[in-house]
Amino acid sequence: MDNFSTGFKIKTAANLLKRQINNAVLKSGDMTALHCWIIGCLYESRDGLFQRDIEQKFNIRRSTATQILKVMEKNGLISKERVSRDRRLKKLLLTPKAVKMHETALEEIMAIEARMLSGISAGELEVFDRVLGKIVQNLQG
Fold first, then answer.
1. Burial classification of residue 20, based on how many CB atoms lie within 10 Å of its CB (0-12 exposed, 13-18 middle, 19 or more buried)
2. 2 DSSP 8-state letter
3. What is the chain's pLDDT, residue by residue, as a tens digit (141 residues)?
4. Beta-bridge mates of residue 93
5. Residue 69: which of 106, 98, 35, 96 has the closest Cα?
6. What is the structure's pLDDT at 129?
7. CA distances (Å), 25 to each of 22, 37, 49, 53, 62, in order?
8. pLDDT score at 2
């Protein structure tokens, strides 16, 4: 177990965070934590993003992104708009329903984030961020 302790801790933290965010965003409507993060990216973009942007940002496969976005479209959270320069491309846009849900969920998520980082100094957080970035790079390479 000692050989897997770092990975196990990361997985445990990710599970706890996902569970808490799922509970928070479910109060805001019919979406999951990943839906909420995707909505957050689209909310910040305002001009819309493409599926490949979501795949890269969240490090998910094309098939996974396709399924997630289909559910989000079915639930009225996003719409797809064809791009004039390339008819094959579809820009992802938030619906008014998703904007309202995002704004409601954001307060809950910020509270979770504050609780998660409670007692952690800026220096510790900087080191953690750097180390976690290296872990991600090592796993991608």
1. middle
2. G
3. 556 689 999 999 999 998 888 787 777 667 777 888 899 999 998 788 999 999 999 999 999 999 999 999 999 999 999 888 887 889 999 999 999 888 888 888 889 999 999 999 999 999 999 999 999 999 987
4. 79
5. 35
6. 96
7. 5, 10, 22, 23, 24
8. 58
Partners of residue 78 on adjacent β-strands: 94
Classified as helix, coil or strand, 13 is: helix
Q: Which two tokens stand for residue 101?
A: 């849900």
Please name the residues in contact with 57: beta carbons below 8 A apart, sequence gap of 6 or more: 41
d(CA 96, CA 116): 30
- Give one word for 102, left, alpha or beta, with left for phi > 0 and alpha for psi -120 to 50: alpha
Two tokens, residue 61: 């496969």
Give residue for tokens 């819309």: 48
User: What type of residue sits at position 89?
Assistant: L
pTM beyond cutoff 0.90: no
Q: Specify the amino acid at residue 141.
A: G
